[in-house]
Amino acid sequence: MAAKDGDLGGEALAADASALGDAPRIRAILTEAAREGRAVSYSELLGDLGFRFTRPKMRALCKTLAEVDRLCALDGEPDLAVLVVRESDRLPGQGWWVGGTALLLGYDGPWEGAAAARFIREQQQGVFDYWEGGASIAG
After folding, report:
1. For 90, left (φ over 0), alpha (ψ -120 to 50), or beta?
2. Residue 67: which of 81, 78, 57 has the closest Cα?
3. Fewer Cβ atoms within 10 Å of its own Cβ: the N or the C terminal residue of the chain?
4. Where are the alpha helices (DSSP H) in 1-138?
């Protein structure tokens, strides 16, 4: 399996299975997206790691997103997993919602629809605002 590196016109790279668990690398990709003020689809993020989208790879990625958010919390930074969304509705997948983050942030509504979209936009904007100020990754 090969994919263009970030769809930025780079050479096709062979996928390295360990990339799915590389929390620092995924964190860096998402931090760059936050600085650019944009969410990233699961498919796009997998592509940046050298993979085509498959459900098993997406599930492996989701496990790593929890670690990314843990690292962000340790450094006093906002969670980045909220930036990873489905292409269909631009909302995070079920795993993000059942992980408890929404409840911790005071949201107890539906996972789809207008209320969910409004909540996610607010959360994403907070991440964009944080990184827009030129914050740098701690560590």
Report:
1. left
2. 81
3. C
4. 23-35, 42-48, 55-74, 94-98, 101-104, 114-132
Bridge partner residues of 2 (DSSP): 14
Longest dimension (CA), the chain: 44
Beta-carbon contacts of residue 29 (< 8 Å; ≥ 6 apart):
40, 45, 48, 49
Element (H, E) at 12: strand 12-14
**Tens digits of residue pLDDT in 79-125:** 999 999 999 999 999 989 998 889 999 999 999 999 999 999 999 99
CA dist 61 and 106 (Å) reads 25
Residue 41, pLDDT > 50, answer yes
Q: How far apart are CA 49 and CA 22, in angstroms?
A: 10
**pLDDT for residue 13 is more than 70:** no
Reference 53, options 93, 10, 25, 81; nearest CA is: 93
Q: For residue 90, what is the DSSP state? A: S
